[in-house]
Amino acid sequence: MKSITLHVTGMTCGGCVKSVTRVLEELNGVEKAVVTLDDGKAVITFDESAVSIPQLIETIEDAGFDATE
C-alpha cells in the first residue's frame, strides 16, 4: 500500500469533506481516505496496482473539486 497527500480546493463544509471521502473510498484499490477541511488535504492509502494517482485526482475533480499533488 502507498500513501499520498493531495491538496483539495473548493471544499466549504463538512458535506464537501464527506463527498470527497465517499468518492475516494468507493474506488477500487483505495483502502482509506482521510479528508480535512481546515487544511484542504486528502491523505489516501491505496494499492498502486489497482488505482493511479491521476485516477485519484480525476475522481476528486469529477466530484466538483480541484486536486493537486
From TrEMBL:
Name the CDD domains on file: HMA
Pfam hit, one: HMA
What InterPro entries does this protein's entry cite? Heavy-metal-associated_CS, HMA_dom, HMA_dom_sf, MerP/CopZ
Q: Which PROSITE patterns match?
A: HMA_1 (PS01047), HMA_2 (PS50846)
The terms under GO molecular function for this entry are: metal ion binding
The HMA domain extends over 2-68
On the tree of life, the source organism's domain of life is: Bacteria
Name listed for the protein in its UniProt record: Heavy-metal-associated domain-containing protein
- Give the originating organism: Haemophilus parainfluenzae
Upper taxonomic lineage: Bacteria, Pseudomonadati, Pseudomonadota, Gammaproteobacteria, Pasteurellales
